[in-house]
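anyone seen this seq b4? input:
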Amino acid sequence: MFSFFRRKEKQQEAGYDAEAMTPVIRCSICTGEQVAGFRRKSDGSFEEVMLICDDGDLRQFREQYGIKEEIEKVY
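predicted toks r here
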């Protein structure tokens, strides 16, 4: 059955290339929605990983990818 609302496939399971990518939280000024992902250093493109609804989601994102440093917020 075809569905318009499919779950997005995970593009990376664990870890990321710290030399080529920076962890970022993209925030919407209008809605307040926050999306965690990675920004490529080479071209600035954003790769979405997960929606952040609460502190637990942010903690899970940090644990899943082993992020210890501060995560930049981009508006």
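Residues 8 and 18 are 23 Å apart (CA to CA). The longest helix spans residues 55-65. kinda curious what u guys think
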